[in-house]
Structures are given as structure tokens and as C-alpha cells.
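Weekly puzzle thread! Below is a chain. First person to post its structure in C-alpha cell form gets bragging rights.
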Amino acid sequence: MQEERELGDELAQELNEDLPIVETSAVHDYINRLGRSITDVADDRDAIDYTFYVVNGPDVNAFAVPGGHIYVYRGLIERADEMSELAGVLAHEVGHVVKRHGIEQWQRAQQAQMGLAVVYGVILGRDPGAAEQVAVQVGAAGVFAGYSREAEREADAVAIGYLVDAGIHPIGLVSFFETLLDQRDRDPSQVEQFFATHPTTRERIANTRDRIDSLPNDTLEGLTRDTQEFQQFRREVEGLPAAESD
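Winning reply:
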């Protein structure tokens, strides 16, 4: 647990220096209120202190790093019609953290690097050269490029329960991904980054919908799909100036 938290804090510090993080209090406060309404029912590990960030970029993307740091781009927020759709994305990313998908990927990357070091040191009797080190780094980065389809399905499944427990209707998880799939059919370039890191098929979304439909009616009754607060938040995001490019 300590390793996960320390790794996440280090990664978040580097990311926050490189990414155009929105520091506007209204935006920062809302995304953390919404996110923590989910984490309060999803994760009882006191050692994980969740923080949510809005990235001022047009990309349709969201991702989580170990230790509870979750990032969502303004391009994704602007495509969410209802609060439940953004909440569905956040719950999905929280699922990756709870199920430790990120730390497991990091451990595999570490093992891959150690394995190559052994090959060079023991079998070849030398350290890897500069070009070979680059190849190792690229290979390790590939481990972090996206979760497996199995991990994505698991994050979907647990997200449904998190949303219900938080009083949010889980149908937003399905409707938002369906919107992005339709967008991919029309103009793949607009959402290619999201699908590069979130392997998604219509079958996967249909299975998620079936899980929701199988819940008792009284479980879904009265769950929130949208709020005025979310619509105000989205207007705040839409009104942000574009981030300056380096």
C-alpha cells in the first residue's frame, strides 16, 4: 500500500508539472466533490487519499494513476450531457485504482526492465547501451498505454455498484460510452486517444447495460441522473480559455 501511494504521488507531481491542470476553484472543487462521493462508498483504504484533476485540453480522455490520482480532460467533460455520464467515467477510473490495475502494470514494467538487465548483465556480460535503454523505456511505457480488456470489464462491473451506492444512476456509464462509439464511427480522430487507452466494443457496452437492467427496479428508483450543479460546472469548463501550448 505504501509503495502504491508513494509511486502515485511521484507520478502525480510529474504529471501536474507537465499538464495544464485547471486551478479554478469552482472547477477543482466540483470535480473533487463528485469524485469523492464515489470514493467514499468505493474504497475503505484509509491510506489512499483520492484527488481529481481537470486537464485543460480538448482531448476526450480520462485516466488514473496508482494512489488515487484521477485526471479527466475538459474535452470529455464537454461531451457529457448529464452528471451521471461524467460520474460513470469517474467511477470506472476509481475501479481501476481499487482493483490495483495501475500498480500491477507498473510491477510488470519493472519486471520487464529487470529481466532485460539480467539478459545484458549475465548473458552478454555488459550493460545495455543508450539505444537499448531507449528500447527498454519504450517497452515499459507500452505496459502503461492502456489496460487489458479484462481490466476494463472489471472496472465497468464495479463502477455500477459504486454509482448505485453513491445515489447516482449507472446508466450514464453506458450512455456516455455509446456516445463516444457513435463519435468514433463518424470522426475517429476526435476520440482516438480515449479508445487507445480504453479498449471498448459495443459488446462490452451491451454487457454493461445488461448488468444494469438486471438490477431490481427499486434499486434504480430515485437515483440521480443530472443536477443543476453539474450543468453549471460544465459551463464553467466550457468557458475556460484554451491552454497555452508550449
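Puzzle host: Confirmed. Bonus trivia for everyone else. Residues 114-126, 130-145 have pLDDT under 50 and may be disordered.
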